[in-house]
Amino acid sequence: MTIWLSAGIIFTLLAVIAILFKWGNVRVVGVTPVRTFTFIAILFTSGLDVGLIMFPLTEFAGYADIKASPEYAFANPLAIEFGYWGFLIWGFYFLTCFYFCVIEPKVKFFEIPWVKFINNVVIIGTCAFTAYLLLTNLPWYLPDFGDGSSVIPVFYLIVLAAIAFAAYSSTDIKYVRILSISTTWMFLALIAFMWAGAFVFGDSELSAFSNNLGAIGTYFANINEFVLPLNDYHEFYLFWWFAWSIMIGQFTARFVGGLRTYQVLAAMLIFPSIPIAIWFSVLYHYHEAGIPTEGIKNFAMVFVGIIFVINSLDSLIRLYTDNLNLTVKRLGKFKYLTMNIVALSLLTLLFKLEFLQIQWVGALVITLFFICIAYIGYNKLKTVNDIIGSPKANEIDYTKIENMS
Fold first, then answer.
1. Average pLDDT value over all residues in the chain
2. Model confidence at 132, in pLDDT bands (50, 70, 90)?
3. The whole model's pTM is what?
4. What distances in angstroms separate CA 272 from CA 29, 96, 188, one per listed residue?
5. How would you class 214 by CB atoms within 10 Å of its CB: exposed for 0-12, middle for 13-18, buried for 19 or more?
6. DSSP 8-state secondary structure symbol assigned to residue 258
7. Where is average pLDDT lowest: 83-92, 141-150, 244-253?
8. Nearest to 237 by CA among 248, 247, 222, 226
9. How confident is the model over 192-228, as pLDDT tens digits?
10. Selection from 368, 44, 362 nearest residue 229 by Cα
11. Would you say 51 and 283 are in contact if contact means Cβ atoms under 8 Å apart?
């Protein structure tokens, strides 16, 4: 699995370089273009999930224990955390976003029936994994509801409610913009709230925050260390990013609003990384200073985490139901909601029972990458070589999203 993952990463990086070399200055326009801020909000909130909110406080101590994990000795825990979530790995999303916006309309690889089937298996499986992460992290953040380790009925109800809400919001694409922008502002408000709770005590705390931001620079000084998997846990993260990449690329490709290719890459690498760096710097101070998060702070993080889950599930449900033609228009709202709620709830339980693993999904995505490039090389090389931009039918009209359902 490690060799397969490493091959996928190297292929991805080479493909990004090739795209920049051939199409670096091309204007990228999706079928439903939106303004740049909205695009970034959709990318950020769809491309991340509850793990961004809930994982760091549970992981810093492990990254600091270099006796147990000497492979982390080259950087501080904050830089390690950032490396697992920020900057370089967003290039995975760039590759798939560009592909689905510019290349796939000509190649139509994902319209091959068996490819379409596997693609939707990936999307549905990753949807369920997102809900599973929320379920398994709730006991740590809401210990007052249980013993701090066991999943109790109230947590199942919270996850079921998130799935149901996401299924409903996916019935109309106009909700995407509302949900994405709202989630972005909620996350920024959470950062401000947690920052105030950690740094209002004096100059030393403000200095600690600045030092934390500076510590993330260790990531950029050692960025080469994060390219290939450091250990099994990093491998898990990288497979997870691959699992997300193929569907986030499909979803975000429709919203690109006329940025040049190099600008899309820059937007994907830089803009999501800024709030991630600030958020992790705030949480790291909580960890280092031993500041408790019980009570309102934990509730705030859980609330925003649930909103992230809803946002992600909304995007992915919309994607696979469109792909499979299981739309509201065809099924009716009641059947549509019932089908998605039941299917995702059952699959979430399969992850809970460890019957499914996200690593398998990520490995399947890498396999699709290699089959796709082989298909292009064998059947569509001239077609791809002749591509000069997005499909002509994709015009910059920011009102399109208002007229879609």
1. 88
2. confident
3. 0.88
4. 20, 17, 12
5. exposed
6. E
7. 141-150
8. 226
9. 898 887 766 544 566 777 888 889 999 999 999 999 9
10. 362
11. no
In angstroms, the CA 128 to CA 130 distance is: 5
79 pLDDT more than 80: yes
For residue 150, name the pLDDT band (cuts at 50, 70, 90).
confident
Q: Virtual CA dihedral for 91, 60, 66, 270, nearest 10 degrees? A: 20
pLDDT at residue 233 in the model: 93
The first and second tokens of residue 294, run together, are 């019980």
State mean pLDDT over 267-278: 92
**What would the two tokens of residue 210 be?**
């600045």
199 Cβ partners below 8 Å, 6+ apart?
Answer: 205, 206, 208, 209, 282, 285
Q: What does 6-53 look like in DSSP terms, one character per residue? A: HHHHHHHHHHHHHHHHHHTT-EEE-SS---HHHHHHHHHHHH--HHHH
Residue length of the chain: 405
Instruction: For residue 133, give the nearest of 387, 383, 351 by alpha carbon.
Output: 351
| Contact (Cβ atoms closer than 8 angstroms) between residue 122 and residue 247 | yes
Which amino acid is residue 158, in one-letter code?
I
What is the phi/psi pair of residue 168, to 5°? -65, -45
Predicted local confidence at residue 385, as pLDDT: 93
Q: What is the DSSP string of 323-372?
A: HTT--HHHH-HHHHHHHHHHHHHHHHHHHHTTSS-HHHHHHHHHHHHHHH
CA-nearest of 124, 93, 56 to 351 is: 124
